[in-house]
């Protein structure tokens, strides 16, 4: 087992229609035994990053280390990694058993040892009953397990997985999330896992690295990423429903104040702005669960009208028109019921707001306050 | 019930179009009729008529004024008990099998070489496909020219290799192989083209998995490439086999109706022609044609069965 390090890694593809900068100056460290998820929208360079670790793509510049070895110039087979492909990439004409045994066969391991290890893995993945079958006729959930078995059997330094759950149906995906997390915990093998699905990232990982347009946006634990997004992109990408985002102006009185439409919010003294200039063009963000909805007769930060009510069972989402550019999304407990058209009051938790410089998308709130 | 269902129709009278007679149905019929008539007279009628003739004793040249004489299965019995008929099929097989196998191996090998990006690939491909695009008669004519005793082929064999000339067209043991050579020259590109289509359809990630898990080159070929292209290759083999089986033009141009020295290159198709249009034994010729048809249908069926097995991965 080993850590994986990226040092200023750049990948540029030259195509007929010009160069594509797929990965831009990535610096990242995956600790030994860590489950790190690379998360980002499709086309942001996740797969390319992963393939560079596997050696299926060569970095244009920068260094990649697995453990203490710089692997840039090693062939994929020499890197001691296992790769799980999105479409499983099983050998169609070999039995499940031979597919799993395959990485061992290439290593001149004794037959008894191979059989034992395959049996072990099959037992762990609960696929003993299909060992004699051919993979191409198996349901995708089982193909997925076979692919995992092939990856696990050699006990590699690092697991690399490229959206392995994307082709499974929803309930199977949820099961596999739990199982994969458990498996990684038991094996303790370093895992670099690529997905565009934030639920997967949040639920499985120790840390998430969010990527956009080839640039690493933020690396942190799921809760850090959720509670303290450092860029506008991360704030909007993570969370469902997406974070409410409005333009605001900051003004200084006795306390710093944010003015969003007809809403005036005094920032709590714990917030310290990174930038000393008073930005006129600031993105103001607040998650739907940090806005509280109540009846209009209570003291509120702002008044509004309910547009839509979406009862989801465990919670209800309201769209509330506050006369601004777009309606606010508010999460509420299902027992507080407000009807569409009803006047309501909203209060916003000033501790839980986010401010971003509109031009650069960088968070304006000081990093020191973000630890909580 | 009937009243109910027909009621709406009477209540909403349809507008009568100006060209009422020009309905969809009329268009369909008028477009199809010429083709149907043509098919009927050019294909269906001859098929049935020749089936009838195959049970008669009749000659289209000698008995023009008499009706065909019904002889039952006599033609078939005669043909199937005649050693010469069997010889023709053996010769045909001796041509078809080597020709198709060599075309397959050669075409696949060339496809493996071409299955990568390099400068001038397009031009090379076009060049390689030319033989396939030529008329078989033209191809045979220039090969006959080159294969003559003092032709260019023998000239090079003597001058470059220093071995005695080959009797391409007159040697009893060589003639059939000359036919194979011409067919291979002409149809290897076809096998190459199909192989290339198969090769380029193999998903790249299978090879990538092989690279990560350290598969040997042989393993990649045996367990990835071959299984993925086999179904397509089988289709190519069926095409080529059926085509080679009824080979006529090249054999006719190279060797004439007699099929070269001692009939050593007289394929079944040449023999039918000889019986039906040289000796003008129309009844017997028709029977021979039907025997050939049954054989090829049987062969094709076997291959299609194999193909289906290969597709489902057994
Ligand atoms: N082989 C390639 N040639 C050219 N461009 C590529 C190649 N592979 C990926 N790209 C480009 O690089 C960018 C990142 O792709 P990728 O890493 O596959 O994204 P993701 O996995 O995050 O969806 C995309 O814009 C894609 O079009
Ligand atoms: Mg991808």
Task: Explain the overall architecture.
- The complex is a heterodimer of chains A (372) and B (314).
- With 372 residues, chain A is an alpha+beta fold.
- In chain A, 23% of the residues lie in helices and 34% in strands.
- Chain A is built from 8 helices and 20 strands.
- In chain A, the strands form 4 sheets. Chain A has a 6-stranded mixed sheet, with helices on both faces. A 5-stranded antiparallel sheet of chain A has the order 13-12-11-14-20. Chain A has a 5-stranded antiparallel sheet with strand order 15-19-16-17-18, with no helix packed on it.
- In chain A, helix 2 crosses helix 3 (111-125), helix 2 packs parallel to helix 4 (140-152) and helix 3 (111-125) crosses helix 4.
- Chain B starts with a helix and ends with a helix.
- The radius of gyration of chain B is 27 Å and the shape is globular.
- Chain B has helices at 2-11, 24-53, 74-81, 83-114, 121-133, 136-147, 152-161, 175-200, 204-212, 217-245, 249-255, 268-278, 282-312, and strands spanning 56-57, 69-70.
- The interface between A and B is medium-sized, with 27 and 18 residues.
- Adenosine-5'-diphosphate (ADP) is lined by residues 13, 15, 20, 22, 40, 42-48 of chain A.
- Magnesium ion is lined by residues 46-47 of chain A.
């Amino acid at each position: 087992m080993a850590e994986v390090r990226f040092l200023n890694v750049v990948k540029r593809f030259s195509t007929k229609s010009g160069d594509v900068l797929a990965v831009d100056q990535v610096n990242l460290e995956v600790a030994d035994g860590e489950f790190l998820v690379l998360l980002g929208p499709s086309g942001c360079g996740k797969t390319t990053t992963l393939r560079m670790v596997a050696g299926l793509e060569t970095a244009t510049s920068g260094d990649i280390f697995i453990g203490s070895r710089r692997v840039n110039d090693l062939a994929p087979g020499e890197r001691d990694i296992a790769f799980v492909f999105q479409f499983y990439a099983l050998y169609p004409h070999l039995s499940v058993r031979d597919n799993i045994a395959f990485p061992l066969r290439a290593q001149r391991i004794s037959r008894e040892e191979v059989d034992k290890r395959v049996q072990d893995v099959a037992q762990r993945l609960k696929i003993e009953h299909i060992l004699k079958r051919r993979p191409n006729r198996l349901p995708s959930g089982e193909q997925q397990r076979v692919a995992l078995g092939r990856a696990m059997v050699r006990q590699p330094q690092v697991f690399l997985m490229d959206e392995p759950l994307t082709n499974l149906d929803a309930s199977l995906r949820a099961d596999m999330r739990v199982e994969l997390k458990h498996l990684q915990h038991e094996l303790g093998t370093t895992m670099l896992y690529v997905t565009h699905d934030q639920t997967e990232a949040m639920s499985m990982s120790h840390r998430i690295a969010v990527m956009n347009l080839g640039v690493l946006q933020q690396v942190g634990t799921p809760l850090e990423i959720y509670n303290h997004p450092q860029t506008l992109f991360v704030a909007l990408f993570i969370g469902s429903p997406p974070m409410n985002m409005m333009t605001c102006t900051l003004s200084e009185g006795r306390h710093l104040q944010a003015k969003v439409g007809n809403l005036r919010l005094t920032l709590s003294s714990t917030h310290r702005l990174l930038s000393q200039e008073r930005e006129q063009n600031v993105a103001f963000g607040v998650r739907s669960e940090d806005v509280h909805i109540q009846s209009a007769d209570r003291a509120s930060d702002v008044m509004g009208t309910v547009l839509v009510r979406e009862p989801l069972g465990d919670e209800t989402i309201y769209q509330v028109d506050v006369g601004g550019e777009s309606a606010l999304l508010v999460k509420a407990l299902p027992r507080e019921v407000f009807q569409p058209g009803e006047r309501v009051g909203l209060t916003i938790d000033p501790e839980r707001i986010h401010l971003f410089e509109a031009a650069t998308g960088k968070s304006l709130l000081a990093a020191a306050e973000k630890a909580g | 019930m009937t009243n109910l269902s027909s009621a709406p129709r009477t209540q909403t009278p349809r507008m009568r179009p100006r060209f009422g007679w020009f309905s969809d149905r009329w268009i369909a019929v008028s477009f199809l009729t010429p083709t149907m008539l043509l098919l009927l007279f050019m294909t269906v009628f001859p098929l049935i008529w020749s089936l009838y003739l195959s049970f008669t004793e009749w000659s289209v040249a000698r008995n023009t004024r008499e009706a065909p004489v019904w002889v039952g299965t006599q033609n078939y019995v005669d043909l199937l008990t005649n050693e010469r008929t069997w010889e023709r099929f053996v010769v045909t097989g001796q041509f078809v099998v080597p020709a198709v196998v060599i075309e397959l191996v050669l075409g696949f090998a060339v496809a493996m070489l071409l299955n990568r990006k390099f400068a001038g690939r397009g031009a090379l491909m076009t060049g390689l496909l030319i033989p396939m695009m030529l008329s078989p008669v033209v191809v045979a004519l220039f090969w006959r020219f080159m294969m003559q005793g003092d032709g260019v082929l023998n000239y090079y064999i003597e001058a470059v290799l220093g071995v005695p000339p080959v009797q391409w067209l007159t040697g009893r043991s060589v003639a059939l192989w000359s036919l194979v050579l011409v067919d291979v020259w002409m149809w290897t590109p076809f096998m190459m083209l199909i192989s290339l289509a198969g090769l380029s359809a193999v998903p790249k990630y299978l090879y990538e998995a092989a690279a990560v898990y350290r598969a040997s080159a042989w393993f990649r070929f045996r367990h990835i490439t071959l299984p993925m292209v086999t179904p397509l290759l089988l289709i190519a083999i069926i095409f080529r086999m059926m085509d080679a089986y009824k080979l006529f033009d090249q054999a006719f141009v190279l060797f004439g109706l007699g099929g070269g020295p001692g009939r050593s290159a007289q394929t079944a198709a040449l023999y039918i022609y000889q019986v039906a249009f040289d000796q003008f034994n129309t009844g017997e010729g028709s029977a021979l044609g039907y025997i050939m048809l049954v054989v090829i249908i049987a062969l094709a069926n076997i291959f299609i069965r194999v193909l289906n097995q290969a597709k489902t991965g057994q």
